[in-house]
Amino acid sequence: MAAECLEDIDKIKDYNLKEGRVRLILEAVRILSDKWGEELSIIGSMIGPFSLAQHINGDNWFGNIFTGENIVPALLDLCSDFNTEYAKAMVKNGADTIVIIDPTASYELIGGEFYEKFALPYQKKIVDAMKELDVATVLHICGDTTNGLEIMDKTGVNGISVDQRMDVRTTKNNLENAVIIGNLDPVAVLWDGTPDDVADASMKVLNAGVGLLSPGCGIVSMTPTANLQTMVKCAINHQR
Ligand SMILES: [Zn+2]
Predict the structure, then answer these.
(1) What is the mean pLDDT of residues 193-199?
(2) By C-alpha distance, which of 167, 163, 179 is closest to 216?
(3) How far away, in angstroms, is 183 Cα from ligand 1 center?
(4) Does residue 132 carry a pLDDT above 80?
């Protein structure tokens, strides 16, 4: 559903979480939680408010930001309210961690000033709602966000998931509060590498200071299971 002008927002504002794909995801969270909730963390994720608003607004989004159109704050309000309700519904169904994936709110694309104005308050709204429920939050933004980390940290998230292009030691110096999550290359290492490559890369980032070992971005669906198992083993061994 697209919203190109303020009037269009009226047409999309009455969403229902009990319909469509959202309903299916919520059901999936419930099934996972019933089956594995005792043993594993159940992580619910969502496209964050900035990227969601951009998808809904379409090609004019970045232009609208630059020219300060009214649709920008209106859409960001709508999207962050939706995100918050969606997160609460996932928690109700058993999620214990919520990940906000906001790829286009990257420092590389919008810089610090725009992030502070158009991404930070809306991401923080979701984080604050989750804090009230005592639910952990993670923020993932793609690309090299080294210079944006300090502002991303202001959202109050528990963990910041960083791209494989980022240097973990530098990241550590730029973060005061959040745990660093990352940042194995999902293509060159996890998909294309051998288990030995995965083990080497895992040890490298763990020793550099990541708090939770994970891929640096979305994994390739054909990623060998043995590689993912090696990643998990490395994390467990490092903990001991
Ligand atoms: Zn990413």
Answers:
(1) 98
(2) 163
(3) 10
(4) yes
User: Of 143, 123, 84, which Cα lies nearest the Cα of 115?
Assistant: 123
pTM of the model: 0.94
For residue range 64-108, what is the model confidence (pLDDT) as tens digits?
Answer: 999 999 999 999 999 999 999 999 999 999 999 999 999 999 998
Domain 6-161: give its CATH code: 3.20.20.210
Q: How far away, in angstroms, is 180 Cα from ligand 1 center?
A: 14
| Pairing outcome for strands 43-47 and 97-101 | parallel
- Supply the pLDDT for residue 2: 79
Helices (H), the chain: 6-12, 20-36, 49-57, 61-67, 71-92, 107-118, 120-132, 149-153, 168-174, 195-208, 225-239
CA of 187 to the centre of ligand 1 (A): 12
Ligand 1 centroid–CA 140 distance in Å is 6
Break the chain into its structural domains and give their ranges: 6-161, 180-240
Distance 100 CA to ligand 1 centre (A): 11
pLDDT at 179 over 70: yes
CA of 195 to the centre of ligand 1 (A): 22
CA of 134 relative to ligand 1 center, distance in Å: 26
Compute the radius of gyration of the chain from its Cα atoms: 18
